[in-house]
Each structure stands twice: as C-alpha cells, then as structure tokens.
Amino acid sequence: MSTVGGSATIPSTVEVAAGSRAVTDFEKGRDLYNFRCYFCHGYAGDAKTLAATYLDPPPRNFTTTPLAQLPRARMIQSVTQGRNNTAMAGFKETLSKQEIVLVVDFVRQAFMSGEKPNTRYHTAGNGWPNHQRYAAAFPFAQGEIALDRAVESLTPAQRQGRKLFMASCITCHDRAKVDDEGIAWDPRPVSYPRAGYSHRLPEADAVSSATPYSIHNKAPVVKGLNAQEREGERLYQAANSCAFCHAADGTGKNWIGTFLEPHARDLTTLEGMTQQRLEGVIRDGLKGTTMPAWRDVLDEKQRAAVAAYVMRVFVPR
After folding, report:
1. Is pTM beyond 0.85 here?
2. Domain ranges in the chain?
3. Domain 2-112 shares a fold with domain 213-313
C-alpha cells in the first residue's frame, strides 16, 4: 500500500502488478502522481482540492486542458523548474528526469486525453464498500451545495446529506465549498498587545491599554425614536444586557464579544433580518453559540422593544 497525505492509503499499482506482469510506465507515473501531485491537482486531475481553495492562481485543472493547448515539453519544464508567480514548485531536486517524464505522460493520458483514468479512491479495496450509500452527502463533497448555506434553506434530504458529510466525509474533504470564505487569520486577544493592536489606531482602550474596544462601547445617538424603541434602547444598553456582548454600537467588537467563540453577532450585518425572527432569537437563544434565551428574563413586550430598537438602529435597511 502507498501512504498518501499521512492518512489514507491507495493500493500501489506497482504492488498489484508485481509477480503478474511488468509494471508499465503509465502505472509508474500514476504512483508518482498519487504520491506527489494529488494534494493540489486531485486524484481526478480536476484540482478540486482543499489546497486549491487557498491558492491564487489555483492549480491547473487538467481535465479541461486540451493536449494541444499544453505541449508535453512545456509540462516537463514546469514540473522540473516550477512556474513563477504560482504555487507550482520545481521537482528537479525530488524526482529524476525519467520520473518527471513518467508523471507528465501519466497526466496527459489519464486526465487530458482520458484514455486511461486514474485509480478511483472510493473503492472497496480502500475501505469504501458500497460508497453509493453516501450519495446524500455527494452534493456537499463535490461543491454543488455550499457547506455554509443556511440549514433552514435546505430540504430535509439535503439536511440529512449535510449531517452525513459532517460526520463521515469532512475529515478528507474538509470544508468543501463555502460561500463566505471569511478571514484567513483571526487574531485572538490572548496576550499583550491584544487583538492586533497597532499604534496607528486613533484611540486605545483605557482598560486594556492595548486595543480600541472603547470606541465600540459608545452607544449611537439616534433622534426620533418612538416610545417602544426608546424602551428597547434602555433595555439593550443596560448593564449585563445586550450591549455586554454585542457592544453598545451593535458590532460585537467590544472586549467580551471578541473573546466569545463564536464571536458575538455583528448586528450591523444582519441584512434581511425581520423583527419577528429577531424576537424569536431573543426569546429562544441560538444553539451552538453563547446567545442565551431571554424568555425568562424579558417579557414579550420587552423583547419586542429590544427587537424594534435593534431593527431601527443597527440592522441595515
């Protein structure tokens, strides 16, 4: 067996052929590709890999590249020397000239011409008997449905597929496709200076002496609030109430909101939120977060007042 990526194993075609027939150049190239190249270009040669989601430009998709468009000599040069301004590294110190030729010829036959497809990963020999039983999860593994799509918008069958993907497929397929990439690196306030402090920031927090949390603890001044919205403002901005986590300005970028995992919701980004739905969240809380249920703290009238204030002051129209 050939260990790939430190986790899964793929039957070595060299081992399969040993003792039965001579190992062909195609099979040698396949073994080299499956060990050296799959991480970026994928077992199917289509570059639908986790690495590809982080690389710019992404790795080449060989399945959509005609043979005439990418000459063999150029491919050999690319594998040997690498390609500038891409993540394609040169393998001249890793592979011999003969091995580089074998890999290039394998790619051209297996992916670019489709004459001889590569070894399939999800086979009984690799520990995947009856792989079709995971069919409900295929749309998430193949990127047809974004993993971060709102669960409420999925059909019951899609929800079951997502659950199956998260339980069985995500170890190798990782996050699959997402609509919101998020930030690549989120600094955590664990030591001084905290939370990405910069001396160029205009104002520092008097408590932490490092970060500008104080600018988010200033409640916005909004004129023309009606009686219900003014009551909601009083309740939201009260000590140990909504502003404690979501910040006085609704961004969640205060001291507590930055520490919470997941971070407190930025109320200024809730475009499309309705007051009825917001009242339900305040009443029942949100599972998997630190948002508690307030039904035993605020009565129905008070919850409606808080929701009205948040909708008027923070939620984008």
Report:
1. no
2. 2-112, 131-173, 213-313
3. yes
